[in-house]
Amino acid sequence: MATIKLDAKVPEGPIGEKWTKYKSSVPLVNPANKRSLEIIVVGTGLAGASAAASLAEMGYKVKTFCFQDSPRRAHSIAAQGGINAAKNYQNDGDSTYRLFYDTIKGGDYRAREANVHRLAEVSANIIDQCVAQGVPFARDYGGMLRNRSFGGTQVQRTFYAAGQTGQQLLLGAYSALERQIGKGSVVNYSRHEMLDVVKIDGKARGIIARNLITGELERHFGHAVLLCTGGYGNVFYLSTNAMGSNVTAAWKAHKQGALFANPCFTQIHPTCIPVSGDHQSKLTLMSESLRNDGRIWVPKQKDDKRAANDIPEEERDYYLERRYPAFGNLVPRDIASRAAKERCDAGYGVGATKMAVYLDFKSNLINKYGRAEATKLGIENPDLDTLIRLGKEVVKEEYGNLFDMYKQITGEDPYEVPMMIYPAVHYTMGGVWVDYNLMTTVPGLYCLGEANFSDHGANRLGASALMQGLSDGYFVIPYTIGAYLSAEIKTKAIPTDHEAFVEAEKATRERIEKLLNIKGKQSPESFHKRLGKIMWEKCGMARNEKGLKEAIAEIQALKKEFWSDLRVLGDIDGFNPELDKAGRVADFIELGELMCIDALNRNESCGGHFREEYQEDGGEAMRDDENYMYVAAWEHKGESQWELHKEELKYENIKIAQRNYK
Fold this sequence. Notes:
Elements: H1 18-25, H2 31-34, E1 38-42, H3 46-58, E2 61-65, E3 83-84, H4 96-106, H5 113-133, E4 158-159, H6 165-183, E5 186-189, E6 192-200, E7 203-211, E8 217-221, E9 224-227, H7 248-255, E10 260-261, E11 266-272, E12 295-299, E13 316-317, H8 319-323, H9 333-348, E14 357-360, H10 362-376, H11 384-410, E15 419-428, E16 431-432, E17 445-447, H12 465-485, H13 499-517, H14 524-539, H15 545-565, H16 577-601, E18 615-616, E19 620-621, H17 625-628, E20 630-638, E21 641-648
């Protein structure tokens, strides 16, 4: 294999002009030629649905693939709190530059400047696009779109639809996609899973997909392939991700030559319903938007057994407000998560497991909302019951579905008692390496949304995932793909009986048969659970050299055991979820090993990557900009072997500083 040279292909010129000049000079494909070019889009969440709809609208022939029964089932639907955009509706000092700065700083200075600035530039367009589609964003009394605050910022730039923003945005993108399917511009393949990338003469020319209903392997040609398959948080087993979320498509691309960047950068979300026991297979998120109006605290007394409402105000430690007065409860997710862990580890945790903290709405429910409503209604000197009743009505409109969800799961009413929360695995900042065009190191193979690494550095700010997915799909890839496809207009559709397709399908079938023929004693689920335990304990919220070395050895042993004692029930032909799961777990095991290698290599703490050896000021992350200001892009070289390539990060528009939210 030729030596890989990383070229981010960032345009020349001032940061504020790069994207504008790029769009004005990028090669184009004329409308007549677009009709003969075929594009495969794998994944139909926000990034995939928006990309497929946009490319089809432009005239390209598009095929979409999703393993769910409908694009509407993509995990994007689970996002709750909102989507960022630099519109400055609140007139509180927001701007494109401030969104750019907040995102770079929030990611602890480990993201590529040019990509992040482009994201900030197109953010306002996303809101206009979604409003035009009919997305029901929250509005104020006069009809203007409303905003709320999220962590890591001091402005209100988050647009939202109660606590179901992802669902409403996905329905907008899905509607655009369905319109193209109805016109015949897009052919959608539901219940299909991509199991390999097909390369011809070094370029991505299609995929091998498995029909999850019939078990049949299919060959599909495309002049270009777009991976829009989400993140890999389920490597930890317990996470806020949908049960089906996996790394398989991205991992197959990685083994075909696409570098995997910063795999150890995973996000721990501070606002999750705590683990209740070994029976769980999934965790449930409570939106970060709740930190707008909820105050996080623990008792000042260790191992306090009193009920939350019995603990008086003066005996409560609002530890985020105490430690970070400038940002308070709205510090970035990595900082809020570590602070919760520190309090629980020190013996101040609450609940049956003592691995939880309180998120309390009572004071804002009464003072912020209740009193404002009473004033509007002309009620003088309202009593406490009236304030609570009026406050509840407002909170229900803002967060009602989240409060209902919490009550259903825990049996406790968060209007009456504080929520209990604890950090959990959520988003993954690492992913497939891409250049400014969103192309991987395999020509013709692109990666969009959470599946790539490009925009969030070592920690993602809340409400930025939806922004990136729709930015990549609606406003970036429609331009950048022309740079590649303009040189492919003479390439005729390659028949799928080409040797490369035949060989790829054969290798895929052999791997599936190998999984089925092990005939051991242990289920795919049991291996996944054991992998997750290793990852959470040794490559989770905190990591250290000893633990990571142990984790690598344990994962290698687990992999050996997997391939010798796995038992997959059912047959190769037909519907077989156990077989689907087995393939995904096999890929997770390999990914887990690389994540630990990456974490071991990065001898610093930054964002969500917290190495216990590298901390200062009582638990703050200690970066090493001199030695680690780079993207770690790993090339697969064989069984348990990877080669590190470095993309140096240069900051010409932002002053590098230790993050300070105090």
